[in-house]
Amino acid sequence: MNLKPETLRRIDEVITHYPVKRSAALPLLHLVQEDVGFISKEAIEWIAQKLELEPINIYELVTFYPMFRQQPIGRRHIKVCRTLSCALMGGYKTCEAFEKEFNTRRGEVSPDGEVTIEFVECLASCGTAPVVMVDDELHEKVDVAKAKQISEQIKREKAERPNG
Amino acid sequence: MRAPQQRRIIFKHIDEPGYTNDLACYVRHGGYEMLKKAVGMQPAAIIDEVKKSGLRGRGGAGFPCGVKWGLVDRKSGKPIYLVVNADESEPGTFKDRYIMHQDPHQLIEGIMITCWANNVKQAYIYIRGEMPHGARILEKAIAEARAANFCGPNILGTAYGCEIYVHRGAGAYICGEETGLIESLEGKRAYPRIKPPYFPAVLGLYQCPTIVNNVETLCHVKHIVDMGGDAFSRIGTPNNTGTRILCVSGHVQKPGYFEYEVGKITLGELLNEVCGGPLPGRTFKAVIPGGSSAKILRFGETFTLKNKDGSTRTLAVEDIPMDFDTLAACGTMGGSGGVIVMDDSVNIVEALGNINAFYAHESCGQCTPCREGSLWMKKITARMVHATPRAEDGVLLKSVADQIAGRTICAFGEACSWPTQSYVAKFPEEFRAYPEAKKGKTHVSALPLV
């Protein structure tokens, strides 16, 4: 595994938080995914070895917890809340607006590799519905107009990035 | 305004201009004084105060907090753990997010007092994976508290030490169930455990005695130490003491979070006066009073309840006080305090379709009735909305729900059955009329919900 030194340092630190190494499985999966972008077969084996477990013990977590993915996604991850409060306030329309802006369908990587749009279950900000998370950032009251603004911002950031 | 004033205890400083989530600000506002007071008290005395306060857990089940602490096995010689359930994922509920984001030290003080009272040396905050920002705020706050000697070794110069760690979940609703949460914290799939024998108070994290408390509950502990159990028990109503944070979302003019003495505000006052009533040109149709798994209430229905003296009284939906017991007597529950409002633009079949999609996605899959049944209910409602509805679908849905409730290891079986059972029972005509209503339309609701 080719992980950044900072990731390796944090992995070694987080293992010390628990009296039983296996408890560090979720934190390690998060750290590896944040570093590499997804959880590969190699990552599963590496984490298992690090925690003195069998690879199946890690694989069963990757397939159970929705936040872990086994394939790369777009550079930016747009998560639109699908659950009732957001749907009541127009969450489906919001999701469609993002799909249209990036010419992609939810669950797929956009043709330019820039975004993956996903419906997710409750983001726990129901009072400011509809809500959307872009990477780690929560956006509130995202109606169609605000979805367009956020999309434009993402496109601007792409244009400003060296090498596109 | 007829509605009573809010009584902000936990939310006292939240949203206050200039109030920040750093330690200096918290201390300036009297922070950690109650931890200082607590370490001067006998742990048993604190547990007694919490028992006297009548505080009921704010996570959803409403179990008395002091009783929960009293059940902890203190004779086994094993370490006792505190697990903070910050995996707030019941749709409609968003109170803990604001506590953790805006006042993390209040939670840490509550945790530390609870740890002192129960001789806990290690506590874990299990926070939703979808709240990376909240996790970072908590980690920073813990580091600040540790540097100031409010947690870590030798707290406030005593021989007592306690570490707090933040542990991020990864998007599974079932981690909010306390034994599922413990399994997840142990690095496994969050399959709830069978109770008995796995009552966390005896066999919890690493098979050690464990207390699992909600964020809001732990914040209350600080205020119980402050005012004393007796004074706390006089807030609210008998058996429903203290304040409660109510989160309102959906079709109201001013959604948000509000803190009231338990049972001192009615549903009608909350929705019509505090939240500004329905959206322009609309009327209220239905409300879920305690998170999406709570049974739905239909505006216009009435409830006949027994008084203590044997007489009866009739309540409309608008008259129901927001307390655990009255809501239960009306056939629903206070649950997590998440109130979701639907107006007449919503078709109930489609609202149920949305909720069934949620529960089918979130079933952990351990028990067959829940795994298969929740998926089956989702498929029926999805077919009704997206393909060919049948007039008898409501009856079929109810029969599936009836086969799940009471037949699973954890309460998820009930959580996924109650919406279907109550929606079909309260709105039978919408299920019967849905095929006709849908003819030629993609959706019957004004907005797609599923």
Written account of the structure:
The complex is a heterodimer of chains A (164) and B (450). Chain A is built from seven helices and four strands. Chain A has helices at residues 5-15, 25-36, 41-50, 55-64, 84-88, 91-102, 144-160, and strands at 76-81, 115-120, 132-134, 137-139. Chain A has a four-stranded mixed beta sheet with strand order 2-1-3-4, covered by helices on one side. In chain A, helix 2 packs antiparallel against helix 3 (41-50). The model of chain A has no long low-confidence stretch (mean pLDDT 97). By secondary structure, chain B is α/β, with parallel strands linked by helices. Chain B is built from 17 helices and 13 strands. Chain B has helices at 23-28, 33-39, 43-53, 65-70, 95-102, 104-118, 132-147, 178-185, 215-227, 229-233, 267-274, 324-329, 348-362, 368-386, 393-404, 412-426, 428-438; strands at residues 80-86, 120-127, 163-168, 210-214, 236-237, 240-241, 243-250, 256-261, 284-288, 297-298, 302-306, 312-316, 338-343. In chain B, the strands form four sheets. A five-stranded mixed beta sheet of chain B has the order 8-7-13-9-10, with no helix packed on it. In chain B, strands 3-2-1-4 form a four-stranded parallel beta sheet, sandwiched between helices. Chain B has a two-stranded antiparallel sheet with strand order 5-6. In chain B, helix 2 packs across helix 9 (215-227) and helix 14 runs parallel beside helix 16 (412-426). The radius of gyration of chain B is 22 Å and the shape is globular. The two termini of chain B are 37 Å apart. The chains are: A alpha+beta (164), B alpha/beta (450). At the A-B interface, helix 2, helix 4 and helix 5 of A face strand 3, strand 7, strand 13 and helix 13 of B.
